Amino acid sequence: MHLSELLAGQVHHVLQGDPSRAPITAGVTFDVDRVWPGSLFIAVPGHREGGPDSVTAAFARGAVAALVEGEDARLGAMVWPADKCTVRVADTRQAAAVVASRYFGEPGRLMDMVAITGTNGKTSVSYMIESALRISAGARVGVIGTAGSRIGDELIPMPHSVLSTPESPDLQYLLGHMRDRATGTVVLEATSMALLTHRVNRTFIDVGVFTNLTQDHLDDHGTMANYRNAKLRLFRGLCQQAVVNADDPVGAEIGVTMPGAVTTYALDVPADYRATDLAVSASGTHFTLHHGGHAYPAAIPFPGRYSVANALASLATCHVLGHDLDTLIAALSHLPPVPGRFERFETPEGTSVIVDYAHSPDSLDKVLATIRSYTRGRVITVFGCGGDRDTTKRVAMGRIAGTHSDLCVLTSDNPRNEDPEAILDQITPGLVSTGTPFERFADRRDAIAFALSAAGPKDTVLIAGKGSEPYQTVREELLPFSDMATARELAQEQTAARCPGGRPAAAVRS
Description:
- By secondary structure, the chain is α/β, with parallel strands linked by helices.
- It folds into three domains: about 5-105, MurE/MurF, N-terminal domain (Udp-n-acetylmuramoylalanyl-d-glutamate--2,6- Diaminopimelate Ligase, Chain: A, domain 1, 3-Layer(aba) Sandwich); about 105-330, Mur-like, catalytic domain (UDP-N-acetylmuramoyl-L-alanine:D-glutamate ligase, 3-Layer(aba) Sandwich), CATH 3.40.1190; about 345-500, Alpha-Beta Complex (Protein-Tyrosine Phosphatase, Chain A).
- Helix content is about 35%, strand content about 25%.
- An eleven-stranded mixed sheet has the order 9-8-7-10-6-11-12-13-14-15-16, with helices on both faces. A six-stranded mixed sheet has the order 17-18-22-19-20-21, with helices on both faces. A five-stranded mixed sheet has the order 1-5-4-3-2.
């Protein structure tokens, strides 16, 4: 397509060249290092891999055209090759969503599109929707989020720099890829920053899902009001219908915003889909589902109230999309584990080990409350707080961990550019206030090893904060590290050390 077709109807000003003579044949990108001959380069101010200063480099790599933003004085001083086209728009991110969607043929129009937003539960709900549709209807579902992008079990390789909700050129590429492979439904995580920066625009979302709103990402948004408003963008013109958590007060705001288009779910208040009579155990939760004046027995293979809430969100979304309720309920009991979300195994000594992504005060509180409700022995918690992120939650997380645990082990959780010991210092006052004993190990492997060595039969060790992430971010490096793989390896080593001949008595059980 020519640039003029991609920009049709969009306010723009041509600085150089002719958009009708600029064929875009090699994609759209913000990243100068991903420019190929025939690309359209979009210069987003402040973008780490590009920006206005990278236009000349993009042209040198073969870009045929560039979009730039606003009245930047530097633009007037730049000299570009005469055969290149440069166009100015008011907001390159908003323009990028339109241009990228058109370049890939507006793929979102041809699939059922679901976008999930909220502080917690986005990944779990996306996995539950995919699994429920696959089990109940044999559906082919695409998933885009924190754990990467895939169609069923087929992973779609993307650069490490791609975000949980990809920038619009990458997101539209993924949607086009999924459409071309006969995907019927796509479920994507819509983060607050993605909504704020227009990444989800022009994806033609059929159902927007709201899970909850609790403290997180204040380093990005400054205030909870700003954070809430970023989340609510999904329900202000980006989706046709909404599925919302009526137990969260923000759910009522969405009902006002989208009258007649909201379906609710809840555990504590009346809702279109409500769960009561919860019976929680280590292996799962049984409950009664109420919908349309009928009561249905239901079960999920995950423990906890929050897991039931995620299941309700998933069930309601699939039903809103037109899938059969009875087969969806039957599918719930067969849902597979979500990687890094309450993922567990048991050591030969009888210690339960759980890896979970909980990295906010609310998510840590809910996971630990669930573990405490059924654990017959001690609860030992390994956790930390991410560097270069909201510092105001650190004391609260220390207090929550201490309140629910018998022993805590403080450690690094993606320290990035902060001193790991300084982060632990900021968490410590919250822990001290509870009187719960704790240890500190800046090295995460050492912390996990200590927790496992301190645990006995019937104890539960929670390793919180990173979930299925396969790396530890230290300064600008991604160092390979998996909580689950490390815990399994250390458990085997410790079992072998306790057994005559150095051989474990039994394999570690999932």
